[in-house]
Design goal:
Blueprint (H helix, E strand, L loop, with lengths): L6 H16 L13 H14 L21 H11 L12 H18 L5 E5 L2 H15 L4 E5 L5 H8 L4 E4 L9 H8 L4 E7 L11 H11 L2 E5 L14 H7 L7 E4 L12 E5 L35 H13 L7 H22 L3 E3 L7 E6 L4 H17 L5 E6 H7 L9 E8 L5 H16 L6
Parallel strand pairs: 2-3, 2-4, 4-5, 5-6
Antiparallel strand pairs: 1-7, 6-7, 8-9, 9-11, 10-11
Amino acid sequence: MRRMINPAELTILKDALDTLANGFSELPDFEADIDTDAIDAVLQEVAVRMQDNYPYHHPRYAGQMLKPPHAVARIAYMLALWTNPNNHALDGGRASSALEKECVQAIGTMFGLDDPLGHLCGGGTMANLEALWVAGRLHPGKKIIASAQAHYTHARISEVLALEFAAVSVTDAGTMDLEALESVLAAGDVGTVVATLGTTGIGAVDPLPDILKLARKYEVRVHVDTAYGGYFTLSSELASAARDAFDVIAQADSVVIDPHKHGLQPYGCGCILFRDSSVGALYKHDSPYTYFSSAELHLGEISLECSRPGAAAVALWATQQLFPMDVGGEFAQDLDRSLLAARALWNRVEQSNLFKALMPPELDIVVYAVNGADAASISEHASEVFHRAASKDLHLALIELPVDMVRHYWPDLIANRDTVRVLRSCLMKPEHLDWLDDMWPLLEAAVKPSDDD
């Protein structure tokens, strides 16, 4: 099992810091005056306050999308903080800007994009904002559409950009309904379709090949939001429909991925990529001081954000060196283990009379209901199980699903509520596959508590 603190990490960081310092050894001596006793006292208080958290690093945490950054990412990020580079202007982060470009190119290669225009950013929200901002510039006044299970940020972003937004209905599996999509496209007022490859609620993968065909027919852009699911393009365990979707990402106009989800990075680290680099012209602006050091294209010239932490690029580059994004490699095998863990949990749920299995997982999110007679009592029971499981150090999540979607998998369910609250497990750690035997009895005990609970 992975310890929360490995002392070897601190030794590695110290050695790397010594090497970094050697690069500036010719400068006159200078050392900031710090009050070590005061800092120690404050940090002890911080450490105590930070104990008021769920154990996100531990395999028994299977709630929200919180995957611990790898040691190499943590160490590289901290190493970079001693220079604190800013990847907006080249003057602020020469080395880290070069590393960021290599990172972005590697992510583009993973998706099959030969020469994408892109950069890192604070996360999926900012990355999607840039994609839809470009979409709005290219199709001014045209509507943005996404599935009803897409992330709520798309509706918010559209409002910020003063663009109309509409949600497209979904199938019982939570994927975009193609007939409904074509009906919306036929109205002629849509500029961009957002296809989600891995919804954050249930992990559904929209049928991108068919969406692309309809987009070509109606001459609209396609933006792929795969902030959560993107790295699964490396997986050898995807089912055929999901595999087909990930295989055509390179045909979309833009794509978003969050390395701080499955890419082993600290928050915040998102990435936006555009297939057509000419959209960089939309970012053009004049600054009398930011770009004087080089005639080359700067990351700040293709980003809506200004100051951005170069440390995020340093951490991602170090991680990509240790774990190349190759099909069949160690990084991809760990993703496969998460998929297998999700399927194994779903199989246990399906065979248990305590739960009702819903849609089979396409990625590594499992949603399942506590058995019961009607939507209201099932929803209440789900909340009880959530809290009882947490008291046993098994941490889950809850999600509200449309009652009609749940009834597809549970036809005799009494629908006395518009939605049903069900349990949700994100099995994002490869260790989850080995920990199911530990977690399952705790989950069962949370459904049927003993007198001691």
